[in-house]
Amino acid sequence: MGVFETLKQILGVKAEADATRAADPDDLFEMTSGYITMEANLDYEPAGEAALCFADVDSTRFAAAVDEVEAIMAAGEEETGTVAELHEDDYGYRWIVLVDDNFEDLVTTIQFAVRTLVDEGFGSRLLAAVFAFQKPGDDRAVYWIYSFRRGSFYPFAPEPGQERNDRIEFKLQSTLDGELTVEDDRGYWYPLWPDDPDSHPWE
Predict the structure, then answer these.
(1) What pTM was estimated for this model as a whole?
(2) Where are the beta strands (DSSP E) in the chain?
């Protein structure tokens, strides 16, 4: 899994300690209008994939909550065609990876999963929701990442060699700020590097 710093540190303890706004699962619905602006103003289209990252805990209650989330995912696949895969990365973090050409289905499914974990008392285990976008004919993806510990979105535009495209990230920020709850402090725009430069952060 492509996270070269500990997720608990970069999206967990420090971000939570410095948080200025509580996370709200309904914030994720901001993406349902944000993606339209991405297409209209920046020519970025949804890549058809998104993911939710959360920390595991050795608890039967937590296992039952995750089972409930998996049941929601299975029901969603039958109803909307959203394909979900749940797996654990090399760092011990869990990912729900979703695939669906309908972006609003992706957002709704992630929000259902988040709401379930929050309602079951495990909101503190949530780390990030990640939404991928691409321009037609361009294999490189850019991302909007929602940090549950900060209660805000931030852009991530990775380049080969563990570099970031600051120009694209600032363009994303300036275009979507006001439509998304964008993190003001760039110090919290944490990168989620993939192991393979051609892969998504969750791969």
Answers:
(1) 0.89
(2) 45-55, 83-88, 93-99, 126-134, 141-147, 152-156, 158-159, 163-164
